[in-house]
Amino acid sequence: MEVRLFPNSARPGVGQKPRRESQRPLLPQHARQCPVLEAGSAAGFLVFPPLEPFESYYMGYEGDGRYQFTYYLMPPNGSPQAMFTITISMPIGSIGAIREDVEFHRKDVPLNRDQALLMLRQLIMPEDLGTPPGALALRAATNFQTPPGWDTVYTPIFNMIERPVPPMLIIRVETDWYAHDTEFRYVLQPGEGINCAHTIPIGQVCFVPREEVTLRDGTPEELAAFAQTKEQFFREKAALKQTTGYGLEYSPHYLRQSRTQKT
User: Fold this and answer.
1) Reported pTM
2) Do residues 212 and 229 touch, judged by C-beta distance below 8 A?
3) Residue 161: CA count within 13 A, CB half-sphere
4) Alpha-helical segments (H) within 176-219
5) pLDDT tens digit sequence for 94-139
6) Cβ atoms of residues 160 and 24 within 8 Å
7) Cβ-proximal residues to 132 (8 Å cutoff; 6+ apart), any chain
8) Which run of H or of E encompasses 242?
9) Labelling 244: which of 46, 71, 94, 102 has CA 20 to 30 A away?
10) Rounded Cα distance, 242 and 177, in Å
11) DSSP string of 120-147?
């Protein structure tokens, strides 16, 4: 199955390409010996923001319909420095114009107000702010086109368990015919924010076939075979154990069986 990749139309060629990644560095050591967890993490592809290595930004929600966007640049051998901040105020009752106030933090920023607002729109989607309250949509560096009959599911990063983790609205788009600009819509509480940088993924995508699934009860014979297979697996798993350098005992039986099935 082949999926076509298209760059962000506002910033073509900027940002990392999607990739699979089974490791989550902050998971406990024992989780790194769990093949089903690693396979879950590697499902689909991590997606990155349209940022250069020297760029980053922060998007926060202050409550009462107020958002704050701060854009940073990192000089060589230096730390990120704030270039400008845009405060976005949503209209009360969703009626009226959105207010956008721009504040420059340095006099040598080679941008004017309109260019700063354009930068904001290249990285987030202001039209989706506040639906529901606290929601914001982050643009990605890559868009996807699936083959006929396949959809794209946009999700948060699987198995990213460190706190705080803002919830995200998961969507499924028929990307075989609809030209969808990739976005990840998070919902923040007042005082929360998201940091985005070149190396930090902003979400994950999976590709699924668009077909009906029929559920049926297993027969008694199938149930007996299921129980026998499970008993045999755990017996073989118990007979094959290894110990890591940290003293953790685990069995590679599932991983070996999985590789055998693939070959």
Assistant:
1) 0.87
2) no
3) 10
4) none
5) 666 788 999 999 888 888 999 999 999 999 998 888 888 899 999 9
6) yes
7) 187
8) strand 242-243
9) 46
10) 49
11) HHHHB-GGGTTSSTTEEEEE-SEEEEPP
